[in-house]
Design goal:
Order of helices and strands: EEHEEHEHEHHEEHEEEEHEHHHHHHHHHH
Distance between the termini: 60 Å
CATH superfamily of the largest domain: Formiminotetrahydrofolate cyclodeaminase monomer, up-and-down helical bundle
Radius of gyration: 28 Å
Oligomer: single chain
CATH architecture of the largest domain: Up-down Bundle
Number of helices: 17
Strand content: 5-15%
Number of strands: 13
Largest sheet: 7 strands, mixed
Shape: globular
Helix content: 40-55%
Length: 552
Amino acid sequence: MSNKIIECVPNFSEGRNMDVIRRITDAIERTEGVKLLHVDPGKGTNRTVVTFVGDDNSVVEAAYRAICVATELIDMRHHTGAHPRFGATDVCPFIPIANATMEDCIACAHRLGERVGRELGIPVYLYEYAATAPHRKNLADVRAGEYEGIPRKIILPEWKPDYGPAQFNEKSGNIAIGARNILIAYNVNLNTTSTRRANAVAFDVREQGRKVKNEKGEEVVQPGACKAVKGIGWYIPEYKIAQVSMNLTNIQVTPVHIAFEECVKSATRRGMRVTGSELVGLIPKQALLDAGRYFLEKQQRSTGVSEEELIHIAIKSLGLDDLAPFHPRERVIEYLIEDANAQRLVKMNLREFANETASESPAPGGGSVAAYVGALGIALGTMVANLSSHKRGWDERWKEFSDYAEKGQRIKDRLLSLVDEDTRAFNRIMEAYALPKNTDAEKAARQQAIQQAVRYAIETPLQVMELSLQSFEVIKAMAEIGNPNSVSDAGVGAICARGAVYGAYLNVKINAGGCEDKTFVQQTLSRAEEVLQLAKKLEEEVLHIVNQKIAT
């Protein structure tokens, strides 16, 4: 898979026949350059949301192949389901994920739309950022009237398809192809079976709200509580509950946890209770991390905990496991697209890591170990911050220590990533030396690759030094003002931090010997020496504080 990553999330109007769904996803998986991330069928909605990623050319090809299969196997003349729909492949949005722009996704939408209209004879409407007119931007407007309303709507000049024939395709209906930002399809579960009451909550929450009459008897719109939220209420026989079904179109404006909280408020006012929630498809990791922090802050507890703990708190607080087990590794976008080899070392247990280090292989070596020692050092400082945040009698200071713990977690996570990064830097040098050198051109390319790899191998341990130096801010503060019962832990953290700086310094020096850019070497060694001396000084200061407190 290339560095450009675009996500495609087609929705197919079939959620019950698993053979049809499998044949659609097989077409995607057989496409080179894409990775199928998630398949989410819903019996009640009779709809399946599929998520896959790849470069721009690959996602367009995979989407086209999937639409071809859906066109063959799904007959809209016999389709029923709770979710609004107007086509066999109902919607097919492209979303920029990494090293891709919205312009890339708009281009994908046009390429796919033109091909679907021309080769499959399906009317195509472009929506969101790919829309060709303002009234086509909103998907709800494009799909208004649903499948049953297509014969009347498609003949109107303002609803002529962007691609494909302007005539009713009875079997396949229409398709909306778009380019958009991350959208979270999210349902909140209620302890009722009433669609009307679920709709009342949806109208309270969604941006467009509801229509009401003012004191003059005129019909006006009463906005809902949350901007960038679309919502309706429905009953799901599969679960025997009603839900508030929402699309969160901009989680920077209304995050998942705020939409959830507004549903809780509305349901409570109306005599109902929220029992949990359901994610349809995938979610960005940051959305769950933000939710975890939000709920910890409500409890006045430290938010400076691990990524895994924040996600656990988010899942339990939102009730994402109410209807089915929720496994983050299967539902978080970043976890699904991460390179398994990118974190090979940090995913080992302690014994495995020690054994790997002690083996005859030259990597992992001192650079990786220095990064790990640095991570352990700041982890100890962070531990003291969290213990201090929860110390009896210090309740009013929880936010002060929580802020230190958050800083510590950020440094720790970055140092952990450098454990594997240092080994990759070493491997890049070995790969460069293995390049062919038969011709003058090959020799020049090989030498350039070697020098780029050497520079990378110098910069990586320098990052370890800088981060380990930053960790002293947290460690020293915890020695001074943290829980006195844990002051020795802060001391050990300082020793680890200084050890990480010194170990990484040795790697900077030895790798600098192979670099031909003498100006870069001189500047780098000068900074490395400065960081080393600062770390030694800070270690002495922390240990002086620690020993004084232990003595008294």
